[in-house]
Amino acid sequence: MLATELAKQASIDHLMFVDENSMEVVKGPKKTKSSFSFDRVFPPTSSQKEIFEDLAELVQSLIDGYNVCVFAYGQTGSGKTYTMEGGLGSEEKGMIPRSIEHIFTALEDSPIT
Q1: Which residues contact 48 (CB under 8 A, 6 or more apart)?
Q2: DSSP state, 17?
Q3: 37 a known binding residue?
Q4: Which residues touch 44 (CB under 8 Å, ≥6 apart)?
Q5: What rounded mean pLDDT belongs to the chain?
Q6: 79 marked among binding-site residues
Q7: Does 93 show up as a binding residue in the annotation?
Q8: Among 32, 48, 67, 52, CA closest to 102
Q9: Could you say which of 17, 66, 90, 101 is the most buried, measured as most Cβ atoms within 10 Å of its Cβ?
């Protein structure tokens, strides 16, 4: 979450991050729980670096010649653009700039054949 969002809302009572692959959504006056499983779930406390560490394996697969697709899904205003593009500081770089850096570093390190 952005700093301004964190200031407005100290916690997210309706989302519970069970583990790295699942989350629960609590909704309605009866507090109905719905459970969801994903390949990976990142809570709002995750850093851009932490998210890229998981994504770096896919970028390496791309370099190795495999087709790769990263799909950012979520509600409007949930941070998809920030996660993909990032902010101005080096720690805030998103997945796109980090992926490009990873690709160019791999190109520089590979021998020319």
Answers
A1: 83, 86, 91, 92, 93, 94, 95, 98
A2: E
A3: no
A4: 1, 6, 12
A5: 84
A6: yes
A7: no
A8: 52
A9: 17
**Is 87 labelled a binding residue?**
no
> Integer distance in angstroms from the first to the last C-alpha of the chain?
45
- Joined tokens for residue 25: 């959504």
Cα dihedral sign for 81, 38, 7, 27?
positive
75 marked ligand binding residue: yes
For the entire predicted model, the pTM comes to: 0.70
User: Which pLDDT tens digit goes with each residue over 63-108?
Assistant: 999 999 888 877 788 888 999 999 888 889 999 999 999 999 998 8
- Token pair, residue 84, equals 């993909």
Residue 54 in tokens = 């998981």
Q: Angle between the 95-109 and 48-63 helix axes, to the nearest 10 degrees?
A: 50
Instruction: Tell me: is residue 9 an annotated ligand-binding position.
Output: no
